[in-house]
Amino acid sequence: MAGFSKKSEQTASQTVSVPYIQPTIQKTALAISALAGAPIAFSKALEENWFKLGKDDEGKQYTPDIFQKAAGVNIIKGEDVLVTAPTGTGKTAIAHFAINKNLAQGKRTLYTTPLKALSNEKYRTFQQIYGAENVGILTGDVKENPEAPIVIMTTEIYRNMVFKDYMTGQKTSSGLNNVGSVIFDELHYLGDVDRGGIWELSLMFTPPENQILSLSATIGNNKTITDWMASLKDSPSQYVTFDTQKGEAAYRNIYDSIMSGKELEVR
User: What tens digit of pLDDT does each residue of 191-240 get?
Assistant: First the structure.
């Protein structure tokens, strides 16, 4: 499982345009999970349970970095989260945090990727981590265990599912049942000239009760994107950025709150 690496490659940021036309989506409150109202001690949840990062080359246990913990807190609070961080700094660990949170709450996770090859890679990796029976895959070529607790799929497949449900006004896609979070890997495809519309529709038609975790190494206009995403659901949306110089100061208060034993409500 990917952990935090001090050696990160620098990736040039890109500005991603957001669409000007938005559909009218019925605003609904976030679904209350099985753990709603029950406080969670984040020092335990973050360190001991959901952030299982493995060990480094010297056999030392990885521990979550500040930006990972900040993302985890917002995920637990039920907010949509966009994480922008260079490749190799631990975005995937945040995805695993969300997956484990959903498993603990009896919810499913949909993990979308832009490429069939990446979907196949994630499928094999997640099977090793969570067990083959708990992971499914949906691409244009492969359909395995589609109602598993964790399902990997191309973004096109996900777009088709949510768009069909929205246009028919019915919950016809069984793959959308009991979903806690939808994870969008490589969100910068939102700005792609040819394929960006797929990501726009996917975000616009995601059911309001489903939490969205987006990951990217290159998006530069984070707040513009999260403001737009929040406007779609009339629900809080946060962004967390890896920054070797500002990260410590930006997230120190959150970290201190976690480690001092303060508890936040789950919703």
Answer: 788 888 898 999 999 998 899 999 998 887 888 888 888 998 888 888 88
Residue 50's contacts (CB-CB under 8 Å, 6 or more residues apart) are 72, 96, 97, 100, 101, 104
- In angstroms, the Cα distances linking 94 to 2, 121, 163, 245 are 9, 18, 27, 20
Helix H or strand E encompassing 183? strand 179-184
Q: Answer yes or no: are the C-beta atoms of 229 and 221 closer than 8 Å.
A: no
Q: Which two tokens stand for residue 260?
A: 């001092």
Report pLDDT for 134.
93
Selection from 204, 141, 205 nearest residue 173 by Cα: 205
Give Rg (Cα) of the chain. Answer: 18
Look-up of token digits 């991603």: 16
β-strand partners of 19:
none
DSSP state of 41: E
Q: Is the CB of residue 30 less than 8 Å from the CB of residue 78?
A: yes
pLDDT of residue 241: 79
Model confidence at 40, in pLDDT bands (50, 70, 90)? Answer: very low
Averaged confidence pLDDT in the chain? 75
